[in-house]
Amino acid sequence: MTARYDVIGIGNAIVDVLAHSDDEFLAAHGLAKGAMTLIDADTAKVLYDAMAPAIECSGGSAANTIAGLASLGAASAFIGKVRDDQLGAIFRHDIRALGVTFETLLATGGAATARCLIFVTADAQRTMQTYLGACVELGPGDIDRDLIAAAKVTYLEGYLWDPPGAKEAFILAATVARQAGRMVALSLSDPFCVDRHRSDFCDLLNDHVDVLFANEEEIKSLYRVDTFDAAMQRVRGHCRIAALTRSKKGSVIISGDEVHVVDAVPIKPVVDTTGAGDAYAAGFLYGITHDFDLVLAARIGGIVAAEVISHFGARAEVPLDALVRREMGSA
Amino acid sequence: MTARYDVIGIGNAIVDVLAHSDDEFLAAHGLAKGAMTLIDADTAKVLYDAMAPAIECSGGSAANTIAGLASLGAASAFIGKVRDDQLGAIFRHDIRALGVTFETLLATGGAATARCLIFVTADAQRTMQTYLGACVELGPGDIDRDLIAAAKVTYLEGYLWDPPGAKEAFILAATVARQAGRMVALSLSDPFCVDRHRSDFCDLLNDHVDVLFANEEEIKSLYRVDTFDAAMQRVRGHCRIAALTRSKKGSVIISGDEVHVVDAVPIKPVVDTTGAGDAYAAGFLYGITHDFDLVLAARIGGIVAAEVISHFGARAEVPLDALVRREMGSA
User: Fold this and answer.
1) In this complex, which of A86, A93, A113 lies closest to B87 when CB atoms are compared?
2) Which residues of chain A have a CB within 8 Å of the CB of B48?
3) I want to staple B267 with a disulfide (CB 3.0 to 4.6 A). Which of A234, A297, B42, B306 is the partner?
4) Domains defined along chain B, listed by start
């Protein structure tokens, strides 16, 4: 069957709240620099009260990737749960305004739409404190089987393993995709997330995943090894394609016997690394769903990531289709 | 009595929703480029549905000025009405996080917190469509007389003339300030706003206002004259101090027999002019409440305006006290 969509993403539907911060603030509040930490509503209130003036923009890891794909020109869809509140309206608006199909039913009771308090330090590092809110309402009932079957790739974020119902939705979606002969892609999301769910993620790689996205810390955490090279040897054969990102060192792509080392796009100044991995995944998935080879896909990933880290916020500020055409033409 | 505050601002409490746009979009929706237009809830919904992905940040004309003053190190307070909703929480957080006293009671019913849909075109011009929402609930009961009497300057935005109850609050505040021997400052806000309330604004200048802020279009509209010079002749003697801004041409300050022409701070690229006038007012009011002469006050206004138009959004991205020290040192 012809695919109506290039990629469907399933993830936590989150509005980001971004502010400048410094190491003293992180230390005073005991925040793990560079990591994503789950917080409850009370902690979210305390931290927000202490936070500097902020800006709000739609976020969420898989949602950022889908937004990037849409901006690149891919046909894409998203499944994720927001409430019928003002932040939920912002999330829906921003993803639909890019042409993304987003029809997940709103939660009409329970917790508010999720938010992620993001503290950006002068070194462009981001420290994320996430209140999952309405995301915990996502369950298997939200998985539209026809939609999944109609997409070349179903893309899942590892963060979905945190809310319990979402995990079931995740496995259902992966199963439906595989049965329809489609590909399943997974991002490991965060080294601490890997730490929380290591054996589940290893099982997933064995049973469900065709394309794996991980950065250096995440893949080392998954296999509990100390070097990138050791992790890379372990990942070979564990899934069809692994795209391992290494910040300034670029990315390494592994697929069967193929191994490619692709340089990063130089960028200065780096302003805010929020969403770098999500952006890379967008570019890479665009490439492999449009019959580019793995090296070209990795290069597009690098171009999109470079755009996103050059400014505050996780989503692109310029239309990515034109940007990539320009960058590829000049390379 | 010693003043506890340098400036207290009274204005519409608004969350800005900013997106890139183009002239075709403005024309298709019949939007008056560069102006602030009031819209109802239904129009706000239609326009938001058609709008590109956006970011949210606290706005409001006088509120932006007060935020700038706080960042410059001035002791400041704000009076304005938001609802007890998520956008209201964002507005409160952002202004309080700067150390601004903001104690206006939240509306617990009625319309939602105000928002301003801002369409920024590639020429850095901003076109604003404002849904006033909870701002219409502001009334004389919200004016804390002790707070007004405790501030060197009470700063009022002309936009307050749009919601009926706010107008009464405005006059009460100006009266209380004058009785306490304090200064009253007014921004004319927008040429269309001047057009709506011309004779009221002229009366205000005669009876209540010590410091007037207006840009070239606004002051020409107030006096229905065709040239800046003609407007400038009319404003002399109409209030103690007039600070007339002229974009790239800088500003002209008039006070009794004194007339100063102060150049703008050159800036490129100009990204988004939203909040330029509010920022200038912040710098100027900082100057006159800290015993700087009028020329220095105008220069600080120019420095703050240059920061704000160099990026997306109406409020400063960097601490203004340090910025101004650096710029003044190097001048």
Assistant:
1) A86
2) 93
3) B306
4) 5-12+61-106+139-330 (3.40.1190.20)
